[in-house]
Fold this protein.
Amino acid sequence: MNDLIESTAWLKLKEHYETIKDVHMRDLFAEEPQRFEAFSASLNDILLDYSKNRVTDETMELLFALARQANVEEWRDNMLAGMAINSTENRSVLHMALRNRSNKPIRVDGRNVMPKVKAVLAHMRDFSEQVRSGEWHGYNGDRIKSIVNIGIGGSDLGPHVVCESMKPFAQRGLKAYFVSNADATHLVETLKQVEPESTLFVIASKTFTTQETMLNAYSARKWFMDLVGNEKAIEKHFVAVTTNIELAGKFGINEANIFEFWDWVGGRYSLWSSVGLTIALYLGMDHFESLLEGAYDMDQHFQNAPLEENIPVILALLGIWYNNFFDAQSHAIMPYSQYLERLPDYLQQLDMESNGKTIDRKGHRVNYLTGPIIWGQSGTNGQHAFFQLLHQGTKPVPADFLIPALSQNPLGLHHRVLFSNCLAQTKALMLGKKYAEAVDEMKHQGFDKKTIEEVIQHKVFDGNKPTNTIIFERLTPKTLGSILAMYEHKVFVQGIIWNINSYDQWGVEYGKVLAGQIQKDLSKPGDVENHDSSTNGLINYRKRVYFDEIEKSGVD
Ligand code: F6P
């Protein structure tokens, strides 16, 4: 039994939906000339324009009432007070402590965690400065030129999106690589680009047990040993980021080069912790701290701004409006910035691993939709791939468009063109094109009546497709920190309203267990019969091909 869809705030929204579902945004804009001012919110240089949404003042009031009914503010304060809001794992959720730039203590089980957080930041500063200055060098005195981050999920996606997005701030001559996939190709192709003498491997794993990461870490270690042949050299080329000091030590990493974090930091919320070591190495600690400052500013905004002006809360509520009342299955992320190309990937884990849940906090199956499918691509590439479906397809796809007002690479007309395209898309999605407008346009273009009749229906656009535009001055570490924290809080608010635990990931754990069983079956000769027929058939196919190959080549 779930209370949410029977609650007062929900029922009022349902009733309101009936009155608004056929209202066109074009008419809302015509009726309300101040719509942009009325439906926008800002923090520092970040401006959220949410006027191109299918909402009125009344819709927003009802959505804010839903947030209040779910006690979003109380949950937010409980999270920051160190309460174990990750109930299925009995853990606090305190990634905000990692970027707490104030002197205020943050406690877990009565203990202030800030001294530990600051000590690890100091360790990261010291180490990254040594590497970047050349004081830390490879076993034979070579300067470190390549950082290879080995990790997966949160131990990969966070540092990866930041390093990609912040390339203009990176140190010349230093390259960052990311290896995550169990497919050896990922590691092999990366190792072709680096030299052992000038490479530093950062093994990033919260648990230090994740199969893909351990596989890649041990294969990288073997590659290194095969080429260098000196066990002692390992400590100059391998460092670890983990909560599991013991296992990192067993791998052969010198304790002084293990960068700690804690179980109150979720994997997908960990880039602010020592998981950000690759960021600090690549960009420098000052830039890493600017990233933390940007996130801290967003945290302060999230904690203090009234719900009506609170950017993450507004984004979360709009998401719920489409997800639960318009039955939108997905939400698209369109960064109009090549540097933000990896943002959709990062947000997929953040959002889908957090809110891809069917069981509520009380252990009941929910009877409403929870987290959407997150997808997207950088503009303008997406325009020439899937935007057709957004404009004229049958599925509603609400989307966020992100764009800097100024480019990091001001080159001729490029940014003006990019900017025009971004705005043209959100405008077209909102306005659409009426039948009469399409006819006039074709007449103007000199088409005859017959041709117009034949194609006119294809030239009509319904419009009324909702988008948010998130614009900022320039993509800097600070702005990026604020944007990433904004999405974290959006996901939190939605999880609270849907009454699910956004901080566990049992579905992923299940896959890991089954993979272990199948792996054992793949090593034994002969067909297997102990799975379902599909799994048996696929295992046996691979085994036949594999064992034939061994027989032919004589090499295992
Ligand atoms: O994908 C499941 C998961 O547990 C993520 O939550 C986590 O980010 C990833 O695996 C990697 O885990 P670890 O950092 O422990 O290697």
Observations:
- The chain has 23 helices and 13 strands.
- Residues 152-155, 205-207, 210, 213, 267-268, 353, 505, 508 surround 6-O-phosphono-beta-D-fructofuranose (CB under 6 Å).
